[in-house]
Write a structure and sequence with these properties.
This protein is mostly beta strands. Helices cover 4% and strands 59% of the residues. It has one helix and 17 strands. It has one helix spanning 6-19, and strands at residues 49-72, 75-99, 102-113, 116-124, 135-138, 141-142, 146-155, 159-168, 188-199, 204-215, 217-218, 223-224, 228-238, 243-254, 271-285, 288-303, 307-322. The strands form two sheets. Strands 1-2-3-7-8-9-10-13-14-15-16-17 form a twelve-stranded antiparallel beta barrel. Strands 11-12 form a two-stranded antiparallel ribbon. The protein is elongated, with a radius of gyration of 21 Å.
Length: 331
């Protein structure tokens, strides 16, 4: 087996992690794009054809003040606390490295989790009835599956550019009138553009990723969530072929208001920012390169959203790689 280079390991880890993106303002004070899922090497795609797998464990804990109201599952609630452990399973297929002059990667992500959500008070139930008692809800649920497509190009020796699209298909396990959900029960399309300056000799990576999320309407709650903007940046240093670490930050801003009969709190535009750290370890499973990456973020400046801490732990590994044919020997 031919040795796999460190830049390829970085590409493998990041393209898979970027596909694991459904997550925890819009309806419920949550958003589809998984903030923090970009980062180092955000625009670097695998340079080889093959099939790849990523398993990302995600843990989010956050809350909002008791005087802040949200619309969740058709309920108007005051004050929220949430603990959301979830697993995002991604399969990615790279059919060609010569699509429009770049690499094409397509795949799908399936989220599964056990969210626990507590509201200080239910002000209005889904049928308009008034309540005042605190309520907690938790369940093991499947989220909406996500289809994704990425196209990446190399520009010069160290620069990479990638265009990414994700589509959330509303066929997950949506629990009507309940607080704890991973499914959004609406069509969602996210488009992003990423840039990475990756110098394998110096061991530095500087990356940025920005995108817009276009939300559809939840047909059950008649809630039309507004569109959202997200941007991330990261700087990472490789200390050896195996170990790298760096810093990462993100900002989220809702750019159009919510509407529909279910949007009883008005346009409910939200925003939040975060800073964090990330580290990766590259190793070999059998003959295949693998990467484990951890990320930790602390949010601040939240409006119409919960504010909390998130943690990612990802394992990325190729299942099959098509190595290029060796050139014929010189005559």
């Amino acid at each position: 087996m031919r040795q796999i280079s460190t830049p390829f390991r970085l590409a493998l880890a990041l393209v898979l992690a970027s596909g694991a993106s459904p997550g925890l303002a819009t309806e419920g004070g949550s958003s589809f794009y998984l903030l923090g899922s970009g980062g180092p090497g955000a625009a670097v795609l695998p340079p080889l054809q093959g099939t790849f797998f990523d398993s990302t464990f995600y843990l989010y804990g956050g809350d909002a003040k008791a005087e802040r109201e949200f619309t969740v599952g058709g309920n108007v609630v005051a004050g929220l606390e949430a603990l959301i452990p979830a697993e995002f399973l991604t399969m990615l297929f790279v059919p060609t490295t010569n699509f429009l002059g770049g690499t094409l990667a397509v795949g799908a992500t399936l989220p599964i989790g056990f969210p626990t959500v507590r509201a200080d008070a239910i002000l209005t139930g889904p049928l308009g009835n008034q309540r005042s008692l605190a309520r907690s809800d938790s369940a093991l649920v499947l989220g909406d599956p996500v289809l994704n497509a990425n196209v990446g190009w190399k520009a010069g020796a160290n620069s990479h550019i990638a265009a990414m699209t994700q589509v959330s298909v509303p066929i997950g396990q949506y629990r009507k009138d309940q607080l704890a959900n991973l499914a959004f029960h609406r069509w969602i399309v996210d488009t992003s553009l990423a840039y990475s300056w990756n110098d394998p000799k110096a061991g530095w990576d500087i990356s940025a990723k920005a995108g817009v999320t276009f939300n559809g309407t939840n047909s059950y709650t008649d809630y039309n969530s507004g569109n959202e903007f997200h941007i991330e940046g990261a700087i990472e240093k490789s200390f050896s072929k195996a170990i790298s670490a760096g810093i990462q930050a993100y900002h989220f801003e809702q750019i159009s208001g919510d509407s529909g009969d279910g949007a009883v709190l008005g346009d409910f535009k939200g925003r939040v920012s975060a800073v964090g750290v990330t580290a990766a370890n590259n190793f070999v499973i059998g003959h295949m390169p693998a990467t484990v990456r951890a990320r930790l973020f602390r949010e601040f400046g939240a409006k119409n959203r919960m504010e909390g801490t998130s943690f990612f732990l990802s394992l990325s590994v190729p299942l099959r790689i098509r190595m290029p044919s060796a050139p014929p020997p010189a005559p």
